[in-house]
């Protein structure tokens, strides 16, 4: 069992002041807390789920609106068991004393605020967020918790929102994590693995505490209540090994495959991704050059990963890559060992790119090399900062590298709505790649036997190539076809399970709930399909279903849905513009 002390030890270094959270969010002295703390119960006794008919929903996202009416039973009782706001100013007297940063809000306390709201002692829902410390405009951060409509609001309310008078709501409690804005704004995912693992561990430790509280309240034997958990993570990356070997994927597979003596099974749902047509993926043999378009006015660095073929043993010498650009002589890395950093210079001798060479073991037998190339911005932030010329650059695998196909992956260079937007997305360019047919309609799949290095296939979310997570994709209401932006598993599959989100192939968007009760917004994407699948799966597990593998979850969906992959009954027809 992973306890609070383990969470503290594993994550304290990640939350150093200024790294991913503001200095005032850091807990200077984390310490263990009792499983059942009378001063800080997770939920009021009347709100606890049924030990035989409940399922905990976990959501890891951005700015979950815990005071929303759809997270209540009636108007004065909360269905939120616990929420970790990682970047809020730390409260040393609060229940989250074991956490490395931020605050924990528990359902019993939220219910107290809801009673104050109902009786007029707090004027608005916004007053609850301010009283809790979630919204504090004096802090220098991205105030995503104050957005009228945000990603976390849409996702969490799709996953676990229910009408206050719905009797099923009490048995689907929510445990959530608000990730720091710096994690969500960093599309390279450099700092994400450790923070995401800490978030998952938090959901599991609080789920265990909730089970223990149910036991205590009902006088049941220790560890006899083992509620299942469905965890929704509507986040992802566009670059990575895509073979299940990344740290996050191995961790999620381990969590999904672990049979705990004090907690029910944990099932994890992820979105397929939204970048099929973005030209961020390519496959290259040794010696072939591929163009790389860098847009002007990009104030952020641009990373590209080159993953080599699977090797039976570590190679005798590292792979090398060659980079060229406008007015620049081609430069080749000179790695002599894995783990080195190379700096590539322009014709004047100025450094314009850095390259990192790594060697990683596969989940099964074998090894893979990776070179990550990071180019400077095309627009300097300040006078004197390094920058490079926008336009057509070129990348190739240098002769002498291990034979085989190399997978190129560009990181997404945009951010969630509301965050700073200094980035411009670069693209891989191949004359043999055609986006449109002669009649002007998009080409949805890679032509069989096509010569283009740039690809639509295998564009799946790089967090979602493990063996046990369930991947959710998007179809439209009109034709039940996988929408054109939805990333692909292999050549043509858009997800293990599909959900109707968009109205029609060229009419995207559905109504989602905003931060405030009664508010709404229009959004689209596989980030919305994942929470609907989580909602469906939590309902089935609350009713007693216990699918153990991805294949068993798909079979369960096929019994409830239509087609292959199964299309689940989903939200009502989206609003048409």
pLDDT averaged over residues: 91
- How far is the first residue's CA from the last residue's CA? 50 Å
The main β sheet shows up as: 9 strands, mixed
- Stretches with pLDDT under 50, minimum 5 residues: none
Q: What strand line-up does the widest sheet have?
A: 5-4-6-1-7-8-20-21-24
What spatial form do the alpha-carbon principal axes imply?
globular
CATH superfamily of the largest domain: Peptidase S8/S53 domain
| CATH topology descriptor of the largest domain | Rossmann fold
Measured on Cα atoms, how large is the radius of gyration?
A: 24 Å
Secondary structure: helix percent: 10-25%
Q: Look at the structure and give the CATH class of the largest domain.
A: Alpha Beta
Please identify the structural class as seen in this structure: alpha/beta
Name given to the CATH architecture of the largest domain: 3-Layer(aba) Sandwich
Number of domains: 2
Count of beta strands: 24
Helical stretch tally: 9
Give the strand content: 15-25%
Write the layout of secondary structure elements.
Layout (H helix, E strand, L loop, with lengths): L3 H8 L44 E6 L10 E2 L3 E2 L1 E6 L17 E4 H12 L6 H8 L18 H10 L13 E5 L2 H5 L6 H27 L10 E4 L14 H11 L8 E6 L9 E5 L3 E6 L7 E6 L13 E5 L2 E5 L8 E5 L5 E11 L5 E9 L15 E7 L7 E6 L16 E3 L40 E7 L20 E6 L7 E4 L6 E4 L2 H17 L7 H11 L6 E2 L9
Parallel strand pairs: 1-6, 1-7, 4-6, 7-8, 8-20, 20-21, 21-24
Antiparallel strand pairs: 2-3, 4-5, 9-18, 10-17, 10-19, 11-16, 11-18, 12-13, 12-17, 14-15, 15-16, 22-23
Helix pairs in contact: 1-6, 4-8, 6-7
